[in-house]
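Hi V.,

Quick status before I head out on leave. The structure for the redesign project is tokenized and pasted below; the design run finished overnight.
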């Protein structure tokens, strides 16, 4: 199994259990999420009230304890964040891209041009559709960390997530 961690914080952001699609000339991953139901699970093993604790028919209505969540957000404990406006987002992402570029110059210089070209296109896409995006950070909620971008494709019930490939570190388990 491969887990993709934030390059700077080590927060787990993604795994290969999801379908990763390269976008923006290989500078980004796009991942479709789904809504899942968490919470109360009533397991009937066919013994009715034999072991006590239930009502006469053995059923318990725990539907109020159920909660619908986005699978990726729940699995990796994303923290939703936000920007008050597009300018604030662009200021943040510009600094983040410079940080990733510096890391690439020091560790993988062949990826610098690919990252800068593709990430710039990705940022332009997000900026031009700013109101359609939600923003998440990893579990540490570190403001210097990777930003996970989410938007709903037309007709989708759950968001599609975008990741900067070069801001992820692959770890094999």
């Amino acid at each position: 199994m491969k887990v993709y961690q934030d390059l700077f914080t080590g927060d787990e952001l993604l795994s290969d259990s999801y379908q990763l699609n390269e976008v923006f000339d290989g500078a980004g991953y796009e991942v479709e999420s789904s809504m899942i139901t968490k919470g109360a699970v009533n397991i009937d093993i066919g013994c009715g009230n034999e072991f006590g604790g239930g009502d006469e028919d053995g059923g318990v209505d725990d539907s109020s304890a159920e909660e619908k969540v986005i699978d990726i957000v729940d699995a990796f404990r994303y923290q939703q964040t936000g920007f008050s406006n597009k300018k604030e987002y662009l200021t943040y992402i510009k600094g983040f891209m410079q940080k990733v570029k510096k890391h690439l110059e020091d560790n993988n210089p062949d990826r610098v041009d690919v990252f800068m070209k593709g990430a710039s296109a990705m940022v332009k896409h997000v900026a031009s559709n700013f109101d359609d995006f939600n923003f998440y950070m990893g579990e540490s909620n570190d403001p210097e960390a990777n930003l996970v971008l989410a938007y709903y494709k037309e007709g989708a019930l759950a968001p599609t997530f975008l990741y900067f490939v070069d801001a992820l570190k692959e770890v094999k388990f």
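Above is the designed sequence. The CA atoms of residues 4 and 170 lie 5 Å apart.

G. will cover questions while I'm gone.

Best,
W.
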